[in-house]
Every structure is written in C-alpha cells, then in structure tokens.
Amino acid sequence: MIPIPKSHSDLIDGNYNVALTTIMPDGQPQTTPVWCNREGDYVLINTMRGFQKEKNMRANEQVTLLAYDPQNPLHNLEIRGVVTEMTEDGALDHLDQLTRKYLRKADATFFGDSIPADLAGQYTPVRVKIMPIRIRAEGKIG
Q: Where exactly are the structural domains of the chain?
C-alpha cells in the first residue's frame, strides 16, 4: 500500500467531492462524484447496492480516485487503487459520517438531510474500502 502524502491529505480529509472511476463490463470507464474519508491510508467511499459503480467494483476491483481543490485545481491527487472490502455492515453509519462531514452539520443523516428520508427503504448503503497502489500528487496548497 502507498501512503497518502501529507501535502495532499487535505484533499481526502476535507470536504472536496472526489471523482471515482470504475470499469464497465464492456471495458469503458465510468466516472461519478463521491464523498470519501480515510481509515489510515485506506480511502473509504459509500455507494448503494445495485448502483452501477457498485456492480463495477464487484466485477473489477481496480478503481481510480481524483481529488482536487476547485479553488486551486493544480493541487490534485490521483489514487489508483484496489477495492479490498465492500460491506453493508456499518455502511449506513459510515454514510451518516460522510453526510456530517460534507454538509458540515453535526447531527446530519444521509436519509433525511442529504436525500428524502422516505427513500431509506429503497436503498441499501455499501461501504467500500480502497487500498492505494499508486499515487500521483501535483501542486501544493496556496
């Protein structure tokens, strides 16, 4: 595993949207914005069971994340990684943590503050753990 450089950890630890690229069954890339945080040098994201990115990661564990500061796009971080875990256990709690981080609201919940609460019965969160295997860091803060 490759450690996330301290010079660019703000891009993962802050509330920047991150682009996740997965591989479709036909080999085409599929990119979508996601929220993320870290567990050591592992990057954690969340998706829903049955979403295309969830299906893609189950079929091909190779992913790329791109994070950048919109006020300073040259300060960016590309993480090529491997999905090491996908679980529904604790996924809703993780999704609520991300919601609080990104909405900057201490008591926020995903179902209710991010999307309508009545959708909770229709979606099942999946927590995804990504191990960085290659990192490209460009630019610096400021």
A: 6-133
What number of other Cβ atoms are within 10 A of residue 11's Cβ? 23
109: its two tokens: 């919940």
The domain 6-133 having CATH identifier 3.40.50.720: the answer here is no
pTM of the model: 0.94
Q: pLDDT for 44-74, tens place per residue?
A: 999 999 999 999 999 999 999 999 999 999 9
| Gap between the Cα atoms of 11 and 18, Å rounded | 8
Sequence-distant (6+) residues with CB within 8 A of 24 are: 30, 52, 56
User: Residue 74 corresponds to which tokens in the numbers above?
Assistant: 């040259």
Residue 51 per-residue DSSP state: S
